[in-house]
């Protein structure tokens, strides 16, 4: 490509606070739904708090009923009293049943509300992130080719996808869990305080200890966790490299060396991994132990209170067996938010980093600037001129084009010839205004290229990359680029003209046949015809053709040349030529080397000069004269040239 | 299936102590852990005025703590704490061992699979793409297999024991209530298994939507020139909007399913609470069970929930792991192409190398890459292999390095078939510079020393000079210690080729194979490099695959390949005179040199 090195990421371009300010407006339209969500969350929390209360009720009902029966046996032997007790026990049974039913209702309501709340929130989160991702994509579509030269596709993908996802996590999981956990803690603490404040204080007394444990755990594992990830990435890279280098390894008898290398990589990851996991085990077991200590303390103190209060509800301390059991249940849930907090912290950090990167991307405004009042360019009438045009991709002295002057007149066929990297495609790039020239002037029919509307400009050109770039989708979509203006008739007649109809008709679903990745289900020749069809459909005035470097069998080659002739007929064309037959009849051939035009003229003139072109021509003649044979013999199915690939 | 279990069992052969520890500690933990509710029962019985009794096997503890002067409740809480401490210690040991073993097995599985690839030939690497192999050795091993191989199995073992002891303890309290309490629990296993396959389907669908979003973005960003040239930006924005909206739908669907299932997981067992309150409560009211029993059932129920998930997980993950094991076995059982069956020894100072009617082709009906090739090379000669792309030169190189063995005929060193020679000592005399210079992410020096350990520092410096790397040595930040490759300095193709040459020479080979290895150099450097090579080449027997006119002229012998056979052979002058193919190739090389020069 044009620039060999991708630019480093400038992650820290956006401070965290700015990123957050960017996030808030995204949430605004959903204010109402967020409030509903909060209400649902409160209901779900209330249900969670109610559960232990009902268990407490049930226990105390049973205790009371037992006391009556004990009383009846010991102190009241008379039958009438026994009947009274029986009624009491009977009503206790009813109360117990009601308790059970209430419990059933509470957990069904709790579960349903929680379900509704989650789904509802997910919808909000999805809406926010979907619109953020769309914004990113739309923004990227407007950036210039220069931006894409500097940023590898993988990076852009991870910006939109991974960072977007970690932001969504922040929305739908973390924020929610924090809110829910706070609600839950408030609810449980309230219930506990109402039951008994001394016991509640016992529970609260361990909180600092738990917090210290969480903090220690965090401090120990977070860096190790990151290291494990890094070491895993190293293993991945190591495996890839060593597997690819296996033939060399074998010839150099280095199997043991690389086994050892893999061993070292594995061991390094294992060590950190073991450290993290063992500390996980320690942490969670300690927390569980702590929980049991608290339960034991509450049981000890609570039980003594129950005994002192002579075991009956409504006594001095107000503590009953039921209250003790309710406390046990609350304590079990009391620790849940703490477990969670220990896992959430690094997700939050990731999301913040993600937000900063996304908003840095949205702030990037590297684009080709359109004139404020663009000149209409109805149609190409006369001439395209380059005057002393210089251009550098990297904005330094490394010029891809140096003081190039050329003319393309209407109806002409202009060929650009030269070794790879000489500057041929740069001329096409400048014509399409993928980049703006560094110096000099480019005019179209006398109008400066920068004064013409970009779409207006590009509509006049058809870019034909014979090594066609195929998008995922079917044949139709790849020809029309999903332009609604292209009717089926136009599509059919066009493919006929470039003789692509013959192979398309043979495809299982004709125009609706899906194109395999990189066009794997199409032959090279078929792909070339497709690229012609694509250009033909848009019927441009000027064709920019980058000829395929790879060749095909002679028969297909003849068909392609014939199709090309039809495509070029009546149009102005600029051709980056790799094959002589295409340019023999060119009006102008420009030989480009190291960014300069070193020879110009038509074929006969240049041949007569006996210069660089003449040598290139002879070389190409030899190549194309012999290569057809070679290709017939080697046209490699990926698995048949196995011996030579590595 | 039996094969896979054996395969898995083999992994434990080095970890017998850990295995024994887990087998023994698991039941101890289960017993200790499941006593907890019984002590709570004791406490609750004593505060609600019932007759509080410890289980018979804990009686001794009761009398012991009471002899220490503790009250009934104080003593029980002390016992509770003692068991908590015991659980803490046992479980840390048990869980720690499991975690350790997970990691250890991950390492073991990966190493084992990787080691087995080191003897594989090109057929293997054509069958399995690098990405596929890497996935098997990372994703399959780390994500799917390693957890199951220890934790999955031993948590299942633990779960069975916990449920067993739990049931035993509950039955001693009340059989009927045990039945009521436990009914919803097996439902959890079934729900887990049913839903996890269903969930997988939803997540697969979601995954395909995510992939679509990603591939759309990838296509848009990579095809940006086409999109811009045809002004299709607007259409792509619309397309992306549509696809991402579809994905939003899939995400929400997946969350719906997942949340519904999670609600089942977290709430189904509460149905057990309902049953305990309903039936147990009624029994407690009438005095059929004590308050302590009632509490104990609630606690049992709560601690028996998680084992259910472990049982479900074992069944589901077991199936997935079997697939991963199969994928690893596929790598490990692949028959290597070149096998070491040495019966003879290598003569380091050999006289001749012979190809005798060598034919090579892949598989049964594979195309023959070379056919009936016979030639002899004497010690110290330089042979140029010339021909078009795909004419069979690289196959000859692969046969020489014994990366592949002939399908018919033989390659002989001093008359001895290479297949009878020890592979390692034969390869020790070879220096090979491949067409694609593969280097490793190591320091420059280590990359050169990859060829030979015993190269002295002097040797290295000489090699640097020979390979025309002096200028790089000054430019590279740390000279010889500069890290190169994917995670180091990105060096150019030409530089890589030169390092590869130094690497091959570092082992002072007897046979030097240069496979078109200076193509990425600029003309001047290439000239200097070959001049330096010419000085060392007479000491070795050289095979040179080349387009360079000078090398063709200098070669003692040129083998002209065409479509897998030797079309002609002789010196440059002889071939120039009689072979049209050679003339054509030679002229083309000449022109190429002029054009690029």
CA distance, first residue to last residue of chain B = 64 Å
Uncertain segments of chain A? 1-5, 310-315, 624-646
Shape of chain A, please?
elongated
Unreliable stretches of chain B (pLDDT < 50, length at least 5) are none
Terminal-residue CA separation of chain A: 24 Å
Quaternary structure state of the chains depicted: heterodimer
What number is the mean pLDDT of chain B? 86
Largest chain interface and its two residue counts? A-B, 149 and 148 residues
Strand content of chain B: 5-15%
Question: Approximately what portion of the residues of chain A adopt beta-strand conformation?
Answer: 5-15%
How many E-type strands of chain B? 10
Q: What's the count of strands of chain A?
A: 12
Please give the count of helices of chain A.
22
Helical proportion of chain A, percent range: 55-70%
Main structural class of chain A: alpha/beta
Q: Which term fits the overall shape of chain B? A: elongated
Gyration radius of chain B, in Å: 37 Å
Describe the 3D structure.
The complex is a heterodimer of chains A (646) and B (597). By secondary structure, chain A is an alpha/beta fold. Helices cover 65% and strands 10% of the residues of chain A. Chain A has a six-stranded mixed β-sheet with strand order 6-9-10-3-11-12, with helices on both faces. A four-stranded antiparallel β-sheet of chain A has the order 2-1-4-5, with helices on one face. In chain A, strands 7-8 form a two-stranded antiparallel sheet. The longest helix of chain A has 63 residues, at 79-141. The model of chain A is unreliable at 1-5, 310-315 and 624-646 (pLDDT under 50). A six-stranded mixed β-sheet of chain B has the order 6-7-8-3-9-10, with helices on both faces. Chain B has a four-stranded antiparallel β-sheet with strand order 2-1-4-5, with helices on one face. In chain B, strand 9 and strand 10 (565-570) form a beta hairpin. In chain B, helix 2 (16-47) packs antiparallel against helix 11 (291-303).
């Amino acid at each position: 490509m044009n620039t060999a090195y991708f630019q480093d990421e400038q992650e820290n371009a956006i401070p965290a606070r700015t990123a957050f300010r960017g996030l808030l407006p995204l949430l605004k339209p959903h204010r109402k739904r967020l409030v509903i969500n909060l209400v649902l969350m409160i209901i779900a929390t209330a249900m969670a708090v109610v559960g232990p209360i009902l268990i407490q009720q049930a226990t105390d009902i049973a205790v009371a009923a037992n006391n009556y029966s004990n009383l009846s046996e010991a102190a009241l032997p008379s039958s009438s009293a026994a009947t009274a007790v029986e009624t009491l026990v009977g009503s206790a049974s009813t109360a117990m049943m009601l308790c059970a039913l209430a419990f059933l209702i509470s957990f069904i309501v709790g579960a349903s509300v929680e379900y509704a709340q989650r789904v509802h929130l997910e919808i909000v989160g999805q809406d926010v992130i979907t619109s953020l991702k769309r914004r990113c994509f739309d923004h990227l579509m407007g950036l210039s080719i220069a931006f894409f030269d500097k940023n590898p596709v993988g990076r852009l993908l991870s910006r939109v996808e991974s960072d977007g996802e970690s932001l969504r996590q922040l929305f739908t999981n973390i924020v929610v869990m924090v809110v829910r956990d706070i609600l839950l803690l408030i609810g449980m603490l309230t219930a506990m305080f109402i039951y008994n404040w001394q016991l509640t204080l016992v529970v609260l007394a361990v909180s600092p200890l738990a917090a210290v444990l969480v903090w220690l755990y965090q401090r120990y594992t977070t860096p190790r966790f990151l290291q494990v990830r890094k070491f895993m990435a190293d293993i991945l890279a190591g495996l890839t490299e060593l597997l690819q280098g296996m033939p060399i390894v074998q010839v150099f008898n280095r199997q043991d060396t690389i086994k050892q290398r893999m061993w070292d990589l594995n061991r390094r990851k294992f060590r950190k991994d073991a450290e993290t996991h063992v500390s996980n085990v320690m942490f969670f077991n300690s927390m569980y132990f702590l929980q049991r200590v608290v339960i034991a303390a509450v049981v000890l103190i609570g039980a003594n209170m129950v005994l002192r209060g002579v075991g009956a509800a409504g006594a001095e301390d107000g503590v009953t067996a039921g209250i003790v059991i309710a406390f046990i249940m609350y304590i079990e849930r009391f620790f849940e938010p703490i477990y969670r907090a220990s896992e959430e912290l690094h997700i939050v950090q990731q999301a913040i980093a993600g937000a900063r990167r996304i908003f840095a991307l949205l702030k990037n405004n590297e684009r080709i600037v359109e004139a404020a009042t663009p000149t209409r360019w109805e149609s190409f009438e006369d001439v395209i001129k380059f005057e002393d045009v210089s251009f550098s991709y990297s904005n330094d002295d490394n010029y891809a084009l140096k003081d190039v002057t050329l003319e393309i007149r209407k109806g002409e066929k202009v060929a650009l010839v030269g070794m790879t990297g000489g500057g041929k495609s740069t001329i096409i790039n400048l014509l399409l205004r993928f980049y703006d020239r560094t110096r000099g002037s480019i005019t179209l029919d006398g109008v400066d290229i920068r004064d013409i509307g970009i779409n207006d400009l590009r509509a006049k050109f058809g870019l034909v990359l014979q090594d066609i770039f195929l998008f995922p989708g079917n044949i139709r979509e790849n020809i029309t680029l999903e332009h609604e203006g292209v009717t089926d008739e136009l599509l059919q007649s066009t493919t006929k003209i470039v003789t692509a109809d013959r192979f398309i008709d043979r495809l299982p679903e004709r125009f609706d046949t899906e194109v395999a990745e990189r066009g794997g289900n199409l032959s090279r020749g078929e792909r070339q015809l497709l690229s012609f069809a694509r250009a033909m459909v848009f019927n441009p005035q000027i064709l920019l053709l980058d000829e395929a470097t790879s060749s095909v069998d002679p028969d297909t080659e003849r068909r392609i040349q014939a199709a090309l002739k039809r495509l070029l007929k009546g149009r102005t064309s600029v051709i980056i030529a790799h094959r002589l037959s295409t340019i023999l009849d060119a009006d102008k051939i420009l030989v480009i080397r190291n960014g300069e035009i070193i020879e110009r003229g038509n074929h006969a003139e240049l041949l007569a000069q006996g210069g660089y072109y003449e040598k290139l021509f002879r070389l190409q003649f030899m190549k194309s004269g012999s290569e057809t044979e070679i290709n017939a013999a080697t046209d490699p199915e990926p698995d048949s040239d196995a011996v030579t690939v590595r | 299936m039996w094969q896979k279990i054996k395969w898995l069992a083999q992994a434990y052969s080095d970890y017998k102590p850990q295995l024994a520890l887990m087998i023994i500690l698991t039941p101890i933990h289960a017993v200790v852990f499941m006593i907890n509710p019984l002590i709570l029962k004791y406490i609750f019985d004593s505060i609600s005025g019932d007759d509080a009794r410890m289980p018979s096997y804990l009686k001794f503890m009761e009398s012991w703590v009471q002899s220490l002067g503790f009250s009934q409740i104080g003593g029980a809480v002390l016992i509770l704490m003692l068991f908590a401490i015991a659980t803490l210690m046992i479980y840390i040991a048990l869980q720690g061992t499991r975690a350790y073993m997970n990691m250890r097995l991950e390492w073991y599985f990966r190493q084992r699979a990787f080691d087995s690839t080191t003897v594989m030939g090109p057929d293997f690497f054509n069958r399995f793409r690098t990405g596929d192999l890497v996935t098997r050795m990372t994703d399959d091993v780390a994500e799917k297999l390693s957890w199951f191989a220890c934790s999955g199995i031993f948590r299942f073992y633990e779960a069975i024991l916990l449920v067993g002891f739990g049931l035993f303890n509950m039955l001693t309290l009340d059989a009927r209530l045990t039945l009521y309490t436990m009914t919803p629990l097996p439902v959890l296993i079934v729900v887990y298994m049913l839903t996890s396959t269903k969930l997988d389907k939803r997540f697969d669908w979601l995954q395909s939507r995510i992939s679509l979003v990603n591939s759309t973005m990838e296509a848009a960003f990579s095809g940006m020139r086409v999109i811009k040239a045809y002004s299709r930006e607007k259409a792509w924005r619309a397309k992306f909007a549509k696809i991402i909206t579809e994905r939003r739908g899939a995400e929400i669907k997946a969350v719906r399913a997942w949340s519904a299932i999670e609600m089942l997981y977290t709430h189904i067992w509460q149905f057990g609470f309902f049953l305990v309150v309903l039936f147990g409560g009624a029994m407690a009211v009438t005095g059929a069970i004590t308050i302590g029993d009632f509490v104990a059932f609630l606690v049992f129920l709560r601690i028996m929930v998680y084992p259910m998930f472990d049982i479900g997980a074992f069944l589901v993950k077991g199936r997935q792991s079997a697939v991963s094991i199969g994928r690893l076995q596929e790598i490990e059982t692949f028959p290597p192409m070149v096998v070491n069956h040495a019966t003879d020894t290598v003569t380091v100072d050999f006289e001749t190398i012979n190809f005798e009617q060598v034919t090579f082709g892949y598989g049964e009906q594979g195309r023959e890459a070379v056919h009936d090739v016979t030639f002899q090379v004497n010690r110290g000669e330089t042979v140029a292999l010339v021909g078009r792309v795909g004419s069979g030169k690289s196959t000859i190189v692969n046969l020489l390095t014994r990366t592949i063995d002939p399908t018919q005929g033989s390659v002989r060193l001093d008359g001895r078939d290479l297949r009878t020679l020890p592979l390692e000592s034969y390869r020790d005399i070879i220096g090979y510079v491949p067409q694609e210079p593969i280097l490793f992410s190591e320091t420059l020096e280590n990359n050169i020393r990859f060829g030979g350990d015993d190269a002295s520092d002097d040797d290295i410096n000489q090699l640097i000079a020979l390979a025309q790397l002096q200028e790089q040595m000054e430019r590279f930040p740390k000279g010889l210690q500069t890290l190169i490759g994917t995670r180091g300095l990105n060096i150019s193709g030409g530089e890589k080729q030169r390092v590869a040459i130094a690497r091959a020479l570092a082992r002072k080979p007897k046979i030097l194979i240069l496979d078109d290895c200076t193509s990425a150099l600029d003309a001047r450097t290439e000239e200097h490099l070959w001049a330096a090579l010419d000085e060392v080449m007479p000491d070795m027997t050289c095979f040179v695959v080349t387009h360079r006119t000078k090398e063709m002229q200098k070669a003692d012998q040129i083998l002209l390949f065409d479509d897998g056979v030797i079309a002609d052979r002789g010196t440059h002058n002889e071939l120039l005179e009689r072979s049209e193919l050679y003339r054509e190739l030679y002229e083309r090389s000449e022109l190429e040199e002029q054009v690029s020069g």
